[in-house]
Design the sequence.
């Protein structure tokens, strides 16, 4: 032990001894004699007094539990200060450990597209999401969870297989759960449509509580849910692929009404199609069209069906 350390040790011993109830006049005289031997002795005692006083002030700010622990186990301000320092260190350690153990809330990542736009995003787990026109979703995907909220629009998911962490999509009041597969989810207000290309998908009420049975969907299944009702239908792989042709920037129709075709075009274009009369709206349409070329579609309506087409700045009116 160095001379400096010996002086510090001696000063601490005096400080503790002085707080004992049997501290006597003789002890005080001995302390003063030691202090008078060297300025280093006085400096060491002064530093310890200041340091322990500061620790005592900090200890006064600690919880009642800390104070009770300090009083019951230790006596004397010097030792109390030391106990307070230990308690403070332990408390800080516990707080630090608590921060490291409790999972922090993860902010979802927002993904959006504008009208006529679609984009692909690779998630942290390797899953690939293709987002259709005018859509918005939020995603939290990490080592603990895989969850997506589809706020509006449509997205196609190619989910990386992970049996320990199901991939969950919440769309309105519907919940879609998968382990690894390819499928799409479309949300139009309260209507949610799920189309499965590959694998198995579980579709159920997002709130649980027995509100409607869960549906297990496989490749070729299409489910349309609204409220507590869900309609399941079988489709061929060709029909499913046609319905998802938007991923190639195309729209495929198979004998749908002109009203429905116009509504679909309007999802992808700011220039809207307006069908002016019921007779024109009921015409059946088939074929594949470029999603963002509404003008070409209107010209085909004119040439193929003899419909009247009036083009204005923000709207194309079609009538019989």
Sequence:
């Amino acid at each position: 032990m160095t001379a400096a350390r010996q002086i510090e040790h001696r000063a601490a011993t005096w400080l503790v001894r002085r707080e004992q109830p049997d501290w006597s006049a003789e002890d005080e005289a001995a302390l003063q004699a030691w202090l008078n031997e060297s300025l280093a002795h006085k400096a060491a005692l002064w530093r310890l007094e200041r340091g322990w006083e500061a620790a005592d002030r900090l200890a006064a700010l600690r919880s009642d539990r800390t104070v009770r622990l300090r009083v019951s186990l230790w006596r004397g301000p010097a030792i109390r200060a030391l106990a307070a320092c230990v308690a403070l260190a332990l408390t800080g350690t516990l707080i630090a450990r608590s921060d490291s153990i409790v999972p922090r809330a993860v902010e979802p990542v927002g993904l959006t597209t504008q009208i006529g736009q679609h984009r692909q995003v690779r998630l942290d787990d390797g899953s690939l999401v293709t987002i259709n026109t005018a859509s918005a979703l939020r995603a939290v995907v990490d080592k603990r969870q895989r969850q997506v909220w589809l706020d509006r629009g449509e997205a196609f998911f190619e989910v990386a297989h992970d049996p320990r962490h199901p991939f969950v999509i919440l769309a309105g009041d519907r919940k879609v759960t998968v382990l690894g597969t390819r499928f799409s989810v479309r949300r139009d207000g309260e209507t949610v449509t799920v189309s499965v290309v590959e694998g198995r998908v579980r579709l159920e009420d997002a709130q649980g509580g027995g509100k409607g049975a869960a549906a297990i969907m496989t490749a070729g299944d299409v489910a349309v849910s609204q409220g507590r009702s869900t309609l399941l239908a079988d489709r061929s792989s060709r029909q499913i692929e046609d319905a998802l042709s938007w991923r190639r920037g195309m729209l495929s129709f198979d004998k749908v009404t002109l009203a429905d075709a116009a509504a679909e075009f309007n999802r992808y274009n700011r220039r809207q199609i307006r069908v002016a009369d019921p007779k024109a709206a009921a015409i059946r349409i088939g074929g594949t069209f470029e999603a963002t070329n509404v003008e070409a579609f209107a010209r085909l309506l004119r040439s193929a069906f003899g419909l009247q087409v009036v083009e204005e700045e923000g709207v194309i009116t079609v009538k019989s």
Remarks:
- Residues 54-76, 81-102 have pLDDT under 50 and may be disordered.
- The chain is about 40% helix and 35% strand.
